Amino acid sequence: MENIKTIATNKKAFHDYFVVESLEAGIELSGTEVKSVRAGGVNLKEAWCSVDEGEMIIKQMHISPYDHGNIFNRPPMRNRRLLLHKREIMRLFGLVKQQGLTLIPLSVYFKGSLVKVQLGLCKGKQLHDKRAVAAKKDADRAIDRALKEQNR
């Protein structure tokens, strides 16, 4: 069993999208970026993925500059390559183009000593969908509360 330690999650993605499928990908980082990730300096709020020239790229992911990194620090918002098999990249590219789905990073975590990204193949929620999900969550919370009171 590998040791998994979650660094950051994208809560906004679960609010704005239905997650159809999720998969794991490696991410290409420099040394100071890994140290910054280890310190928790990752923000996935506006991040998304695209296929550029046959490679999966994560865009708008913010990794804070490492405090002791001096000249080796990279720009915090640079595009970073994701490590997937060519077959997976082409399959995801086809789904995104044909079905109008979006690739969103859901979380960043350490699996052993490697930094991994959980990608979600997502479909956008509309306002009425968000309201329905919120109403269902409130109803479930009320039911749990009532059952808890009844069991006392």
Report on this model:
The protein is of the alpha+beta class and about 150 residues long. The chain is built from four helices and nine strands. The protein has helices at about 10-15, 30-40, 85-100, 125-150; strands spanning about 5-10, 15-25, 40-45, 50, 55-60, 60-65, 80-85, 100-110, 115-125. The protein has a seven-stranded antiparallel sheet. The protein has a two-stranded antiparallel ribbon with strand order 3-6. The model has no long low-confidence stretch (mean pLDDT about 90).
Number of strands: 9
Q: Rough shape?
A: globular
The chain-level structural class is: alpha+beta
Seen as an oligomer or otherwise, the chain set is single chain
Spatial arrangement of strands, main beta sheet: 1-8-9-2-7-5-4
Give the N-terminus to C-terminus distance in angstroms: 39 Å
Q: Given the structure, what is the number of helices?
A: 4
How large a portion of the residues is in β-strands, by DSSP E? Answer: 35-45%
Mean pLDDT score: 88
Largest sheet: 7 strands, antiparallel
Instruction: Give unreliable regions as ranges.
Output: none
User: Rg, please?
Assistant: 18 Å
In terms of topology, how is this protein built?
Layout: E1 4-9, H1 11-16, E2 17-27, H2 31-38, E3 42-43, E4 48-52, E5 55-59, E6 62-63, E7 80-83, H3 86-99, E8 102-111, E9 114-124, H4 127-150
Antiparallel strand pairs: 1-8, 2-7, 2-9, 3-6, 4-5, 5-7, 8-9
Short structural description:
This protein is of the alpha+beta class and 152 residues long. It is built from 4 helices and 9 strands, in the order βαβαβββββαββα.
